[in-house]
Amino acid sequence: MIDAAEEAIRQAERARALLDNPLLAGAFAELEADFLRVWRTSGTHAVAEREASWQMLRALDALRGRLEAAVTNGAFALARVEAENRARAAAQVNGDPLV
Description:
With 99 residues, this protein is mainly alpha-helical. It is 87% helix and 0% strand.
């Protein structure tokens, strides 16, 4: 369990670094603006262009969502590891032989 938790914590750190990266944040914002502009300003008959922009916008949101989910999962994993460590320390203080 600790190995999986540690991996989730490491992934969260990497995901947070990506989300906090100004270059990546700027790229996300520019792409989102471009996709929305194309989607909003496309002509009535530009169905394929509008659909492609909408799909790209959804893909961008999905990528951001995956990174945010990794951060959230890492926070839960860290809390779980810290709780297990506190319980283990308390058991040792109380002389619990099962620790």
